[in-house]
Inverse folding.
């Protein structure tokens, strides 16, 4: 058994029946040519009678059967004298599978096909129970009516139909795969090996035929499941969360590049990846949110002086993640009524989270404008907007402005323009401005000024003007849709060179004093006039707008101003 096979065997043997083995096994069957009729997930909550998975397929003699697969994992992965005869144990499951018929008249000839029952367990059969087990099978079944697939056979199948067929077929993929697992929980991991591994799988795709892209998406699913599995084993879910972001963004970029966003079979496979990501985010927030939501829950009491920087950094990253998670959950909501209920519940929890953590209101880097706008747009959604949502988001923006003002007056410091965290740490630690620290311009403050126009709030507008210097460079990041394929670029990289800036000149037209009564109305009108014809994103059109927002946060590309300018009332 080579090292790659050992990795596969170790991974498979550690899977639990619920979600992990139940999810992974149908992928294998699909690649083996089986037609899945029902999975354990679809039958969850109902009596399955020893039939976790039902499928149609051929055996090694090319004879077609109805296959009933009973999956055993976790404490039941090894067949022993304890679990064989126990209530709801292995013997009882096999008998139920045999005695309880499953019919489906909608599938031609299905009800007349011969039945084969398979016990699938990611372990071994103990020597002391083997004679009893073999005697039981020989009495209950005729030849070819029953099979047992253990860890050794499963390892062979996964090696043949997935790993060695696609993922580990070349040395570089094998090397990157092993390095990904070896350094998964290393400090400051940028997951570069994982990114290269994912890119390599797409590079190996020679055509976009059904069989090849099915294997590709199955490989991606398995990669994500393995990262998720080992992240849980390490009790550290950040690797699973972060790698899932890259894999989803990169896969959607590939779909856009090849103009496949309208192919139903592709979207079906892509949604499977999204559901794995949803499971990852579910696990992450289940573990963290109950702590994060309490007063200063995101503050590390052991962080000492670093928390002046660490607390807001952690908070804004958490904000990015929870907004995306909320949108992802909404994507899989089934009805309008359920969706509205979900949105309101999400917003109530986020209000509690933000109000209990001051770190969300203390931006220290200029690109913190991105999570701030993410939160604003989430609450500005007209389809579910409540007055309490408007009150909260206005209060939140006003608190940010207040904290920026305090920092400017007290320490003569604004958020660092180029998002250089090392310079920020040095500034906070020493109290002395590093020579390279830059806060003479700001996209964040320019964005806040434009939001004052959205809120139609002269008070907010004047509060911002009360602490910024006349020579502060106020810039709004935008991009020329005629010069670039903006949509595909958003899913590819940071667009520092592609963006241009729109300057806000608060002293134009010789308006003195700056707080002249009519000045706010003229400023508001000037912002409104900059609104351009909305660009129709293919991503949005196909119901995946939340992915575009994810790409903005992942590659730290400022959200485009049309997103909020369109909300300015006339």
């Amino acid at each position: 058994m080579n090292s790659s096979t050992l990795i596969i065997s170790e991974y498979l043997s550690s899977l639990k029946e619920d979600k992990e083995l139940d999810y992974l096994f149908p992928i294998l069957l699909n690649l083996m040519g089986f037609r899945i009729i029902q999975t354990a997930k679809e039958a969850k909550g109902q009596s399955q009678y020893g039939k976790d998975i039902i499928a149609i397929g051929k055996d090694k003699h090319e004879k077609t059967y109805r296959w009933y697969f009973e999956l055993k994992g976790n404490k039941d992965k090894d067949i022993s004298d304890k679990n064989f005869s126990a209530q709801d144990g292995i013997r009882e499951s096999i008998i139920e599978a045999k005695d309880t018929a499953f019919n489906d008249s909608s599938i031609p000839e299905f009800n007349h096909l011969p039945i084969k029952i398979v016990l699938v367990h990611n372990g071994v059969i103990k020597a002391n129970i083997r004679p009893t087990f073999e005697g039981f099978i020989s009495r209950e079944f005729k030849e070819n009516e029953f099979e047992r697939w253990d860890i050794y056979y499963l390892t062979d199948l996964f090696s043949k139909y997935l790993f060695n067929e696609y993922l580990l077929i070349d040395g570089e993929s094998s090397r990157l795969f092993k390095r990904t697992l070896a350094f998964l929980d290393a400090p400051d991991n940028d997951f570069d090996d994982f990114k290269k591994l994912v890119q390599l799988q797409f590079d190996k795709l020679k055509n976009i035929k059904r069989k090849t892209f099915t294997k590709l998406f199955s490989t991606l699913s398995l990669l994500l499941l393995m990262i998720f599995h080992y992240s849980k084993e390490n009790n550290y879910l950040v690797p699973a969360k972060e790698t899932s972001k890259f894999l989803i963004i990169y896969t959607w970029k590939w779909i856009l590049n090849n103009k496949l966003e309208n192919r139903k079979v592709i979207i079906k496979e892509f949604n499977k990846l999204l559901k794995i990501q949803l499971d990852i985010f579910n696990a992450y927030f289940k573990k963290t949110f109950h702590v994060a939501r309490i007063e200063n829950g995101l503050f590390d009491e052991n962080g000492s002086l670093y928390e002046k920087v660490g607390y807001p950094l952690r908070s804004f990253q958490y904000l990015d993640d929870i907004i995306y998670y909320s949108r992802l959950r909404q994507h899989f909501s089934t009805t309008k009524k359920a969706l509205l209920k979900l949105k309101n519940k999400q917003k109530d929890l986020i209000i509690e989270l933000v109000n209990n953590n001051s770190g969300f209101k203390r931006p220290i880097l200029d690109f913190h404008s991105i999570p701030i706008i993410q939160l604003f747009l989430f609450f500005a959604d007209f389809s579910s907007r409540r007055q309490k949502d408007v009150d909260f988001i206005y209060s939140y923006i006003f608190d940010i402005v207040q904290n920026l003002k305090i920092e400017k007056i007290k320490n003569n410091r604004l958020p660092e323009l180029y998002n250089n965290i090392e310079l920020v740490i040095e500034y906070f630690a020493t109290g002395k401005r590093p020579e390279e620290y830059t806060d003479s311009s700001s996209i964040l403050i320019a964005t806040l000024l434009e939001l004052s126009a959205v809120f139609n709030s002269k008070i907010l507008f004047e509060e911002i003007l009360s602490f910024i210097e006349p020579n502060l460079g106020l810039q709004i990041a935008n991009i020329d849709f005629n010069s670039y394929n903006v949509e595909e670029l958003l899913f590819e990289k940071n667009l520092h060179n592609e963006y241009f800036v729109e300057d806000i000149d608060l002293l134009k037209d010789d308006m003195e004093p700056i707080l002249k009564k009519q000045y706010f109305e003229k400023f508001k009108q000037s912002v409104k006039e900059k609104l351009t014809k909305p660009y129709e994103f293919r991503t949005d059109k196909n119901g995946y707008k939340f992915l575009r927002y994810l790409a903005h946060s992942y590659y730290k590309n400022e959200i485009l101003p049309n997103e909020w300018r369109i909300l300015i009332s006339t």
Observations:
- The chain has three domains: 3-160, 170-292, 297-565.
- The radius of gyration is 28 Å.
